[in-house]
Write a structure and sequence with these properties.
Bound molecules: phenylalanine
Strand content: 15-25%
Number of helices: 12
Strand order of the largest sheet: 1-5-6-10-9-8-7
Number of domains: 2
Helix content: 40-55%
Order of helices and strands: HHHHHEEHEEHEEHEEEHEHHH
Distance between the termini: 87 Å
Structural class: alpha+beta
Largest sheet: 7 strands, mixed
Shape: rod-shaped
Length: 342
């Protein structure tokens, strides 16, 4: 019997529990009516009288130890449970979490810069629809009926209505401005345009433009040249030179392509300017009198110039981005690089 008591006492001392259920099972096993300790008390009745005193003390010690263990474990587990319910105190010594800030898309950054440069010299911003009719995108702009730019190659037509297409340039917005207002007109139209081109590092079927229009009495090619030189220097830096090369557009006569001196190498040639020292940035020219007449403006009284540039092309140059597709993929690693730019 002594051995039994000692074994149970060891078991009581070593017992640990993680849940109230385990404690209760232990209590039932040891202390309930049919438990191990009451059973020993039954055996106690048969113990001979000279060992009764000692055995009684041992038994009582065991019972006390078991009762106490149950009580201890219950209190401990209850305390732990109520601790878990309490909200945790914030650790005031922790370094502050960084609030994620958004960043503007590089196309928006460059568009905003272009807008500001022209707004400073009195141009106002005008916008128009991305789905255009043939008149505003082509006919009013002096595109002959059979001009290849109307071909399916370049233009996304709306299949249910052949008169409608996704605008291929924002010159369409300028037609709308001229139809609604008499000169003087000084406006720029930023916006998204669409052309059915194969997607590559240098071309996409969606891109962005800013086109400009200035119409008044006595506007000359020299006025255009001076305005574009001002723009080039504001955009690419004070040292920038411009160069105008003859070109062709149905809606301007004469027409030109404007190049700016390469701001990367400053002239001698590099991979960005393909060793020419010049970078092509926009088309421009004097508004064809036919276009003015198409829009209800007297071409004997007024003259004007127009220009148009692709925002992606300029952004690629300013930030030295080699693949135009990056602008459309929204890869966070690319966009996060513009976080600090306003
Ligand atoms: N609309 C022309 C284009 O999309 C650009 C341009 C605008 C050229 C105005 C000359 C004058 O390519």
């Amino acid at each position: 019997m002594t051995d039994k008591i000692d074994a149970l006492l060891r078991e009581v001392e070593e017992f640990e529990a993680d849940s109230p259920e385990e404690v209760e099972a232990f209590r039932l096993k040891m202390l309930s009516k049919k438990g191990a300790i009451p059973a020993l008390f039954d055996d106690f009745k048969t113990v001979e009288s000279e060992r009764r005193k000692e055995m009684g003390m041992r038994l009582n010690r065991l019972k006390q130890a078991a009762t106490q263990k149950v009580h201890e474990l219950k209190t401990k587990l209850e305390a732990r449970a109520s601790q878990a319910d309490k909200p945790k105190m914030p650790d005031l010594t922790m370094p502050a979490a960084r609030d994620p800030i958004g960043s503007r898309h590089p196309i928006s950054l460059v568009r905003n810069r272009i807008n500001r440069i022209f707004e400073r010299i009195g141009f106002v911003i005008s916008e128009g629809p991305e789905i255009e009719d043939d008149w505003h995108n082509f006919s009013a702009l002096n595109f002959p009926q059979e001009h290849p730019a109307r071909d399916m190659q370049d233009t996304f037509f709306v299949s249910r209505n052949p008169d409608l297409a996704l605008r291929t340039h924002t010159s369409s917005v300028q037609v709308r401005v001229m139809e609604g207002q008499q000169p003087p007109i000084r406006t720029i139209s930023p916006g998204r345009v669409f052309r059915n081109e194969a997607i590559s590092a240098r071309a996409h079927c969606i891109f962005h433009q800013v086109e400009g229009l200035y119409i008044d009495e006595g506007v000359s090619f020299a006025d255009m040249k001076q305005t574009l030189l001002y723009f080039a220097r504001e955009m690419f830096g004070e040292q920038t030179q411009i160069r105008l090369r003859p070109s062709f557009f149905p809606f301007t006569e004469p027409s030109a392509e404007m190049d700016v001196s390469c701001n990367i190498c400053g002239g001698p040639g590099c991979t960005i300017c393909k060793y020419s020292g010049w970078i092509e940035v926009m088309g421009c020219g004097m508004v064809d009198p036919n276009v003015l007449e198409n829009c209800g403006i007297d071409s004997r009284k007024y003259t004007g110039y127009a220009f148009g540039m692709g925002i992606e092309r300029i952004a690629m140059n300013i930030y030295q981005i080699k693949d135009l597709r990056l602008f459309f993929e929204n890869d966070m690693r690319f966009l996060q690089q513009f976080e600090s730019v306003l």
